[in-house]
Sequence to fold (453 residues):
Amino acid sequence: MKPFQYYAPADIQEALNLLANHKGEAKLLAGGTDLINQMKRGEVSPKYLISLNALRSLRYITREEGAIRIGAGTNLSVIETSPVIKTLFPVLAHAAGQIGSVQIRNRGTIGGNLVNASPSADMAAPLLALDATAIIIGPKRRNEVPLQTLFTGPGETSLADDDLLQEIIVPILSNNAKAVYHKLSTRRAMDIAAVGVAVCLGTQAEGKINHVAIALGAVAPTPLRARGTEQFLRGQRFSLELVERAASIAADEASPISDHRASAGYRKEMIKVLVKRGLLDTGPGV
Amino acid sequence: MKKEIKLQINGEEFELRVEPWRTLLDVLRNELGLTGTKEGCGQGDCGACTVLVNGKAVNSCLFLIAEAEGSQVTTIEGLSQGQKLHPIQESFIKYGAVQCGFCTPGMILMAKSLLDENPQPTLEDIKKAMAGNLCRCTGYQNILQAILAVSGQSLSYSQEESKHGRL
Fold:
């Protein structure tokens, strides 16, 4: 690794000041499970490394009226095992537990997983399906934005050089809504999603769909919502035939590439399989 | 530009002056001569470099030494007490869970981390916990058996498993 100056700021304001002072030449270090690898490979060589790991103020899961707030510095292992998360958003605990290994999850953070912005980031699709928002702070700003706006391309975000992702806010689901995440990968652990599908579904009497969100990971330049599929499903009566048609529509909303994990054609087929599976998991039973 | 770092390793206090871009793995092996921790892949995929930091298993190849300031680190050297081996070490020997031994320190520390948190893990719990530790020699069966045995459980094959001859 190329030499760098290391800082361990004591509070967020100090971290922001350091980022601003070293504009463009500094990187924030959270768990490091992505960044340190990138630095070892020489893909990234910041002159200044600002560690967030001492900041208690970024590690929290708090329950509020109508929402959960998760500090961006919260470890994936904490999210995986948090009683609050397991009760209110089991899909997030499940997704966090799909990432890497115990060793990786003990260091990796939810913020890092999102800001690293891999199209296959396992926290992204579930959070998108849950309509999560992100708090971004800078030297003179504090904005709450829809999570989707964070992702601009593979490994690219809308964050400016002096921005910091502070928090993820997840609105509490209504009683009838359930969410699941299915990750397709060659290995059962220590693997990146070849296809990731998150489904959040709520139905009323007679199987009428009153809430639907479907998010796809690893099949486009960014994680994304399958809005066309959602529109097709909204207000319809849940049935196996409806589910199968929706799965096809979802596959067409994606633009997967062929790589060493899977071909584009296979990914399209697997989107159908996983969307169908996710809808059947969350639906009223057919 | 060296940095002063104070940390505790296997119960002993250390004050180091090292470059911040060095990893905990590098410092343990090359600065302190604690070569029990191994470098397998150097990128957090194999688990051979696993150590415990404040009781949590981490890949030391991705852990900058500066991040260890004020922490308690446990390496494989810290497990035995002189001539007396830790029960997990004894079990690995008893069940033939060591062949070349390269993955073993990481395996044992990860197993310790699991058993500290969950003294009665199921086989599935163990497999999930050990997923970040690779072994090229043993085929894992004896390792899983050794860990189960520490918790006082033994491996019993279901009809299905014994039909296929594997776990």
